[in-house]
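not sure who needs this but someone in the group chat was asking about RNA-binding protein from Helicobacter apodemus so here u go. i didnt clean anything up, its just raw.
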Amino acid sequence: MVEHFIKDYVQKIATQPEKIEVTKKELEPNFYEIEIISSMQDAGKLIGKDGKMIGAIKTFILGLKAKEGNSYRIVVKSQE
């Protein structure tokens, strides 16, 4: 569920939404890594000035932690 929301949200921000890929991997019990892969130009947009955009995404994820009990790590990578 969380990866679908993040993908929809990130595609609205991106200039090349068709290149956005979001994957979720379980690293440990109740600890997941969400990887956002985008174009190099969009990676900068997703992180935002002073990390404000990625910070907003992480704030949303904290709400899910309170509801579901899972922890998440967000990673933004660019594809060339």
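also Residues 52-68 form the longest helix (17 residues). if thats useful
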